[in-house]
Amino acid sequence: MRVFLLEDDSAISMGLKYSLEKEGYEVTHCENVKDAEAQFKSGYYDICILDINLPDGNGYDVCKFIKAKEDVPVIFLTASDAEVNVVMGLEMGADDYICKPFRINELMARIKTVLRRSGKRGAGEATSDAAIEKLSNVNIYTNEAKVTVTGDDGKETAIELTALEYRLLLTFCNNRGVVLSRNQLLQDMWDVSGDFVNDNTLTVYIKRLRDKIEKDPSDPQIIKTVRGLGYIVN
């Protein structure tokens, strides 16, 4: 999985490159608009991570250049969470944005989410021609970000999940057999405005998710509580 990284801050870029390569990604790094456009012409990339403020221009220009060439997923790195900056980036075709300073775990989770939405897989994730993940009678169509539940009659019924409920479900799905503490879940979760979810809100979202996917939410068999430790999905 090839990542195109555009970041002019050497400290940030070195840390990102190291972390991404540790996760199994192949990283190409550029520091300015001129080099980025030249490099992108000569290579193929699965996802692009673009800083906005650059010495010879901005990430918006590079995003336009990339999207005109091919439909590659783009995540913006921005020092400002001002609504105008976010809206501008999304209108240019960006798939997500993350504000500096950020947590590496948060960025890794967003990369995997964006790749799934584009029909790809993050580094180290198993591939599937059907792009379907199953948890008991729950079917997750990752290419379409669609979730269904198979009833006793064998018929599938679509269920509506919010963006955060869907991310929470994917987190459990990608960590089957592993006890996830509340702190681990909180590190990977954020709401639609980019704010981190607090402990009380996490409790509410887990309850809502159980209400939608469990046959008996009062006795959950998919998302199980491990008393004193967290949650597990087998």
From TrEMBL:
GO BP, sorted A to Z: regulation of DNA-templated transcription
**Domain OmpR/PhoB-type: start-end pairs:** 130-234
Q: Which residues bind DNA?
A: 130-234
What molecular function does GO assign, one term?
A: phosphorelay response regulator activity
Q: Which UniProt keywords apply?
A: DNA-binding, Phosphoprotein, Transcription, Transcription regulation
SUPFAM superfamilies in the record, alphabetically? C-terminal effector domain of the bipartite response regulators, CheY-like
Which residues get modified to 4-aspartylphosphate? Answer: D51
User: Which residue numbers delimit the Response regulatory domain?
Assistant: 2-115
Coiled-coil annotation: which residues?
Answer: none
Superkingdom per UniProt: Bacteria
GO (cellular component) term, any one: cytosol
Q: Which PANTHER family match?
A: ALKALINE PHOSPHATASE SYNTHESIS TRANSCRIPTIONAL REGULATORY PROTEIN PHOP, REGULATOR OF RPOS
Describe the task this protein carries out.
May play the central regulatory role in sporulation. It may be an element of the effector pathway responsible for the activation of sporulation genes in response to nutritional stress. Spo0A may act in concert with spo0H (a sigma factor) to control the expression of some genes that are critical to the sporulation process.
Name-wise, this protein is Stage 0 sporulation protein A homolog
Native source organism of the sequence: Butyrivibrio fibrisolvens DSM 3071
